[in-house]
């Protein structure tokens, strides 16, 4: 079975919510919609205090090339436009809306009917993706339309669709593939048209045989799309590792997938593209897995952007007594929340409730030079060395040993028998080395 | 709900720990331990106990009063050092010499470098070489193994297979004549030969080695490249001149090679970090072992070979880096 070649780990999958159909979260009384839910410049607010907005209305406009539009996820009255602290404790400009009856923009097609036909040109598709504020829903939230602005001299060959979902616990993409299979296939066909390629490959980890079967059964109706089962190995869903597994090409250090003729998009994004193009629906809601060993009802929830995290946990059975940590995203790469009343965004793929015991780190001991971190690093780096260089503030050496290639997947720290905080050192090192590189360019 | 914890990712940790690795190694040494007690009796047991206890006490005191650290011994590394040191000495070694070796191993080879993980050389081997140069007579006096022999004192002593081979060759005898005086391969495989405590039985060490591989505490790279190199090198010499060089199977089974290849060259702290580096390291150990065995003063070269290669590990780590993702041009 296909997979990437070097490194990788096998954390327990714990996909407790895999069989839970997607449920809709009721609209909250007040939502907080940050204007920066994507990589790049924050969007510019288009509404003021007191304005009445409809669901799907543009409320903040993308600012510059790498940025994305933000739409209202509810209808109601703008209470204020001010800085709200997000789940990490960072102040972000947000539009706070008090909701009334849920009235959607008239242009949005709310029917369940699946529209397969798309007559738009490539340029029109890309423009519509941009207008509807679509960003990569796998976690990086890179504005999607940018990926379709092909640089001079490059030629895309493959569209790669990421249905791997290699993070433990998370099942949002899995459920989406099962419940919105046809929509996803239409979305992929549209993206292929936008990219002007005739080959698309969907990569799915082999622990989701039902999703593989479901999408495979549709491939005869959608020419050019193939479905590939991939070995269960973390981080199979990392962009570079996925490309390696599917087309056996390695994206060079510091380069984008386009360098090897690929564009990678998450299945969730493909679904969002379907809704945007065929239903005129901007991206203002997404599926979020709410899971954890203590939760009475691990769930997959369709929630409006801006809904408080606590509301979602409530739907999954409420915050358990022994909660020690709440993670936004997956357990390998997600971030621990410090403010759990903060809103979910386009980037929120999961909410994990960890027990007190799971929340505590193991006390680190000396490195015993076992080399396991090297063995598991999917980028072929030497995490022990980079951590040491970072600790000793030897930035030039760290750069030479390719610290910037680290994607913080956490495989090294997960494996380390000495429980060393390797990724912490990587983050510090990457930050510093990144600064040095930027200064050199200026 | 109480306060919630905030920390950087990853939020999961695998089930590996230093403690589990170290105790895993101790378990892997048990077959060789039982074989040594079976053949060498109470003196073997006492030697092992003295070595382990001395290592533990030395580690505790030095960690506490020299390194000023938490003096916890639960990681099990001192037990390994003690056991391996005992495995590398004859059962007839006076107890106070075993103690000195253990103190030297922990003090000079480990604590002086900063403790677990920071030492350059394998502590047990440093202890052994220290004993070999300090007490050469006691360290080369080998009790003859007697199964199920429960007396306190070793009576008969004799040479090791490698020792008698070297002696006979020095006298100018031919291999076909010497072979008759050497132990059978079956005895060498099972362990009924003279030698250090833990090195005599190839099968017991192999069992432990398989366990280490199964638990993924070691990988195949070092033992295989080490043993293959010895086999190939001595094999070539055997083909060139079978009257003066004994066959490679003898070299694999004799002396401390198996123990060295599975338990000492594979010590994580003192061996290279990458697979490529491990292969080079095993190759180097093999070449040096054969050079010493065939043309050196000592009949056995495993300890010296591994210690010399230990010194090259930082260089190997620098020279043999893993292949980085995206380094190869796409065709």
What does this structure look like?
- The complex is a heterodimer of chains A (442) and B (331).
- Chain A has 442 residues and is an alpha/beta fold.
- Chain A has helices at residues 122-131, 144-147, 172-179, 181-195, 209-218, 239-247, 267-279, 309-315, 356-359, 372-376, 383-391, 395-400, 411-415, 422-441, and strands at residues 22-24, 30-34, 44-45, 52-53, 58-61, 70-71, 76-85, 91-99, 158-162, 200-205, 225-230, 262-266, 285-291, 299-304, 323-328, 335-336, 350-355.
- Chain A has four domains: 22-99, OB fold (Dihydrolipoamide Acetyltransferase, E2P), CATH 2.40.50; 122-279, Rossmann fold; 304-359, no CATH class; 372-441, no CATH class.
- Chain A is 28% helix and 19% strand.
- The relative contact order of chain A is 0.15.
- Chain B is mainly α and 331 residues long.
- Chain B has two domains: 18-139, no CATH class; 158-319, no CATH class.
- In chain B, 60% of the residues lie in helices and 1% in strands.
- Chain B has 15 helices and two strands.
- Chain B has a two-stranded antiparallel sheet with strand order 1-2.
- The mean pLDDT of chain B is 90.
- At the A-B interface, strand 15, strand 16, helix 9, helix 10 and helix 13 of A face helix 1 of B.
């Amino acid at each position: 079975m296909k997979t990437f070649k070097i490194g990788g780990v096998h954390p327990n999958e714990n996909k407790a919510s895999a069989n839970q159909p997607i449920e809709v979260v009721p609209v909250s009384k007040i939502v907080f919609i940050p204007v920066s839910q994507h990589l790049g410049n924050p969007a510019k607010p288009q509404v003021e205090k007191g304005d009445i907005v409809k669901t799907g209305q543009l409320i903040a406009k993308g600012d510059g090339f790498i940025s994305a539009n933000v739409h209202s996820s509810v209808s109601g009255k703008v209470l204020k436009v001010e800085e709200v602290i997000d789940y990490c404790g960072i102040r972000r400009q947000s539009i706070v809306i008090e909701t009334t009856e849920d009235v959607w923009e008239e242009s949005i097609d709310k029917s369940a009917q699946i529209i397969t036909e798309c007559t738009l040109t490539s340029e029109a598709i890309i423009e519509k993706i941009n207008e509807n504020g679509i960003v990569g829903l796998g976690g990086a939230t890179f504005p999607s339309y940018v990926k379709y602005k092909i640089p001079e001299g490059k030629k895309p060959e493959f569209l790669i669709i990421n249905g791997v979902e290699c993070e433990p616990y998370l099942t949002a993409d899995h459920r989406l593939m099962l419940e919105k299979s046809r929509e996803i296939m239409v979305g992929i066909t549209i993206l292929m048209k936008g990219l002007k390629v005739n080959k698309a490959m969907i990569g799915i980890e082999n622990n989701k045989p039902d999703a593989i079967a479901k999408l495979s059964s549709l491939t005869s109706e959608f020419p050019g799309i193939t479905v590939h089962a991939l070995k269960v190995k973390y981080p199979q869903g990392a962009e570079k590792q996925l490309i390696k597994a599917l087309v056996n090409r390695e994206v060079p250090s510091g380069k984008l997938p386009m360098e090897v003729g690929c564009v990678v998009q998450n299945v969730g994004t493909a679904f969002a593209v379907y809704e945007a193009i065929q239903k005129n629906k901007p991206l203002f809601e997404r599926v979020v897995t709410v899971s954890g060993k203590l939760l009475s009802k691990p769930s997959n929830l369709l929630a409006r952007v801006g809904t408080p995290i606590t509301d979602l946990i409530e739907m999954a059975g409420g915050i358990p007594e022994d909660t020690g940590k709440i993670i936004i995203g997956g357990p390998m790469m997600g971030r621990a929340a410090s403010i759990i009343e903060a809103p979910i965004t386009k980037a929120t793929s999961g909410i994990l409730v960890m027990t007190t015991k799971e929340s505590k780190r193991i006390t680190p001991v000396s490195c015993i030079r076992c080399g396991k971190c090297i063995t598991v690093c999917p980028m072929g780096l030497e995490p022990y060395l980079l951590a040491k260089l970072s600790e000793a503030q030897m930035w030039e050496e760290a750069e030479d040993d390719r610290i910037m290639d680290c994607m913080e997947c956490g495989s090294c720290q997960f494996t380390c028998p000495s429980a060393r905080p390797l990724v912490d050192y990587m983050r510090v090192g990457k930050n510093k080395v990144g600064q040095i590189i930027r200064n050199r360019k200026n | 709900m109480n306060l919630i914890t905030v920390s950087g990712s990853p939020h999961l940790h695998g089930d590996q720990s230093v403690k589990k690795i170290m105790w895993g190694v101790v378990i892997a040494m048990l077959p060789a331990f039982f074989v040594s007690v079976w053949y060498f009796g109470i003196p073997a047991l006492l030697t092992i106990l003295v070595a382990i206890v001395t290592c533990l006490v030395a580690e505790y005191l030095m960690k506490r009063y020299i390194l000023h650290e938490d003096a916890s011994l639960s990681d099990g590394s001192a037990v390994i050092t003690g056991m391996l040191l005992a495995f590398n000495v004859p059962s007839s070694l006076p107890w106070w010499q075993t103690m000195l070796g253990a103190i030297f191993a922990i003090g000079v080879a480990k604590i002086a470098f900063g403790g677990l993980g920071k030492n350059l050389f394998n502590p047990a081997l440093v202890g052994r070489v220290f004993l070999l140069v300090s007490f050469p007579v006691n360290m080369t006096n080998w009790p003859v193994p007697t199964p199920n022999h429960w007396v306190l004192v070793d009576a008969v002593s004799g040479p090791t297979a490698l020792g008698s081979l070297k002696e006979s060759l020095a006298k100018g005898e031919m291999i076909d004549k010497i072979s008759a005086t050497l132990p059978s391969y079956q005895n060498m495989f099972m362990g009924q030969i003279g030698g250090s405590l833990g090195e005599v039985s190839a099968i017991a060490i192999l069992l432990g080695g398989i366990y280490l591989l199964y638990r993924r505490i070691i990988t195949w790279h070092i033992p295989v490249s080490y043993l293959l190199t010895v086999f190939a090198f001595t094999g070539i010499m055997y083909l060139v001149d079978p009257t003066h060089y004994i066959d490679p199977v003898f070299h694999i089974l004799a002396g401390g090679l198996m123990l060295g290849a599975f338990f000492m060259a594979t010590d994580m702290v003192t061996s290279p970090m990458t697979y490529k580096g491990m292969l080079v390291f095993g190759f180097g150990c093999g070449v040096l072992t054969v050079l010493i065995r065939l043309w050196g003063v000592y009949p056995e070269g495993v300890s010296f070979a591994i210690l010399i290669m230990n010194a090259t590990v930082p260089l190997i780590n620098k020279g043999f880096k893993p292949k980085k993702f995206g380094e190869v041009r796409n065709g």
